[in-house]
Design goal:
heterodimer; A: about 290 residues; MetI-like fold; 13 helices; about 75% helix; B: about 280 residues; mainly alpha; globular
Chain lengths: ~290, ~280
């Protein structure tokens, strides 16, 4: 049914979206690449010329680079582990026949809809504050010394906040995938005497493998660039400076655009490595 | 349900699921509850669950001291504007990809997805600079455009997965019955496309409302939406828990409600159709 006429019409209909996204991708990317090779200090002399690879080597050799990579990996890795494992358990639980399933599901998903600045501030002040926070009250009720969460366990606190935000996402997707599992197959396995653990291991988990990898990859992309949660809690102090936050500080706080842009190129390369894997999985779902 | 479930087993799982659900929801519940307390009661030890004087004064105070309505209005304009613009650009694109697919359709879709992977911080300064040059810094128009662009790949993808499910044969049947192009679009295609478009609008609104990188970095006093307004509570003066709670409750309530309607679509939209 696709004639030459409808093909050119189709191209025309696609054009605005393609052109806009192309511009959005290429223009800033080209500028970042250009700045990354220049000594560019907007408040201290402006563009001071070409510096070759100096920004790239300086960004890596600065004393805050490796700690920032470490903080990024710890946060991303821990949040992934927590959300996938708990999400799997929660999805299994919500998949059981229970009373009020719809309401429980709503309660579980709710944190995902809370804007990042709200969840970070509510956790920071109303729960983790060592004097007036909810946790401090609970600790005192048991006669324990309240914990100064954000300075004693800075990374742990941020991991907790971010995991709370992303657990619903993992749960929802794993639950959706679980519900498409063939019930009769499960029942047959049960009648043949397969234990619950065996049924989970040999039937449920293989069925979920694609959903799990999708959860991991999409979350990784978003987690690599978490910003607001750090911005309003520690502002990068106490070793919570991630790669994203380090670049933000170089570019906007210390206004060293050349150096920050080189960092930006590193971040883009890192994200692209993850993206490559995600694209492969998503691409497969198109072939049907 | 083919399997017979013993009532005791169901009861155990029900109790467990409710306990976990309430635990996860607790921070939101606590925020809503605190917004109705006085500042003194908000930090009371032990925490007050019911026995306090319910008050609405925090809501009035937040509006009075910081002109809350202005930020709310900015959020509405930015989320609504970027969604409207995104849908206008994305519907034709997704439509043509779904109904007149070519060899390159898949590549274009994947390429669009790849633009979503670009870390925002990597292009922060160029965008910042362009915004200054074009006079867009701290304007709602600037944010409408940026949020439209960052959500466009998701919008196109989601619409595409919906449109692809519309059976093409039905068009031919309509043509046989003598429908012209106009009635084809209005009476046959539109009714089937509208639910998909509505779900996409919902997801786009949610994502734009909660976006907190560009809204924090590209606005100051004038165009700041609720994300930036709430962030200003990170260095407060005096007691502020009840006021923070009131402001937060108002900021998240609309999206919580929209979000509950869109659970299913959310999965499709955020996994780019890979999980349904």
């Amino acid at each position: 049914m696709a004639t030459a006429h409808s093909r050119s019409a189709a191209r025309l209909m696609m054009a605005p979206a393609v052109v806009l996204l192309l511009g959005w991708m290429l223009v800033p990317l080209a500028m970042t690449l250009w700045f990354s090779f220049r000594k560019y200090l907007p408040l201290r002399g402006g563009d001071l010329g070409f510096t070759g690879w100096e920004n790239y080597s300086r960004f890596i050799s600065s004393s805050s680079f490796w700690p920032s990579i470490q903080a990024t990996l710890i946060i991303v890795g821990s949040v992934l582990a927590i959300t996938v494992l708990l999400g799997l358990l929660l999805a299994l639980l919500l998949d059981q026949p229970i009373w009020g399933q719809g309401i429980v599901r709503i309660l579980v998903i709710a944190p995902f809809f809370v804007m990042p600045t709200v969840s970070a501030l509510v956790w920071k002040n109303m729960f983790m504050d060592p004097v007036n926070g909810f946790f401090a009250h609970v600790w005192k009720a048991f006669g324990a010394e309240p914990v100064v969460w954000l300075s004693d366990f800075p990374l742990g606190s941020i991991i907790m906040i971010v995991s709370w935000q992303w657990l619903p996402f993992a749960t929802l997707i794993l639950l959706t995938a679980m519900q498409s599992l063939d019930r009769e197959q499960l029942d047959a396995a049960e009648m043949d005497g397969a234990s619950p653990l065996a049924r989970f291991w040999y039937l449920v988990l293989p069925h979920l493998s694609r959903a799990i990898s999708v959860v991991i990859l999409i979350q990784t992309i978003f987690l690599l660039s978490i910003f607001a949660e750090i911005f309003v809690t520690t502002a990068g102090a106490f070793g919570t400076k991630t790669l994203t936050y380090l670049i933000y500080q170089r570019v906007l706080e210390s206004q060293n655009v050349g150096l920050g842009s080189a960092g930006g190129v590193y971040a883009i390369i890192l994200a692209n490595i993850v993206a490559l894997f995600l694209m492969r999985i998503v691409g497969k779902s198109l072939e049907r | 349900m083919a399997r017979a479930v013993s009532p005791r087993r169901k009861l155990v799982f029900t109790l467990l699921a409710w306990a976990v659900g309430l635990l996860i929801f607790f921070p939101i519940y606590w925020t809503i509850l605190t917004s109705f307390k006085t500042e003194g009661q908000a930090i009371n030890d032990p925490p007050l669950f019911f026995a306090f004087d319910w008050t609405l004064e925090n809501y009035a105070l937040v509006q009075e001291r910081s002109d809350y309505m202005r930020y709310l209005w900015n959020s509405v304009i930015i989320a609504g504007g970027s969604t409207l613009l995104g849908i206008l650009v994305a519907v034709p694109a997704a439509w043509s990809m779904a109904f007149v697919p070519s060899k390159r359709t898949k590549d274009i879709l994947l390429w669009m997805l790849s633009t979503k992977m670009l870390p925002a911080v990597g292009v922060l300064y160029p965008i910042y600079l362009l915004f200054i040059e074009m006079g867009l810094l701290d304007t709602r128009l600037g944010l409408v455009v940026v949020l439209m662009l960052i959500n466009l790949p998701i919008i196109v993808w989601m619409l595409y997965t919906y449109f692809r499910e519309i059976p093409v044969d039905i068009l031919e049947a309509a043509r046989m019955d003598g429908a012209n192009l106009r009635s084809e679009i209005f009476y046959v295609l539109a009714p089937m496309a509208i639910p998909g478009i509505a779900s996409t609008v919902l997801l786009s609104l949610i994502l734009a409302w909660n976006e907190a990188f560009w809204t924090l970095n590209l606005t100051a006093a004038k165009a700041a939406p609720l994300t930036a307004f709430i962030a200003s509570y990170s260095s407060p003066e005096g007691l502020f828990y009840a006021k923070l709670s009131a402001a937060s409750t108002m900021a998240i309530a609309p999206i919580l409600i929209l979000g509950w309607f869109s659970q299913k679509q959310l999965v499709r939209g955020l996994t780019f159709g890979a999980v349904k």
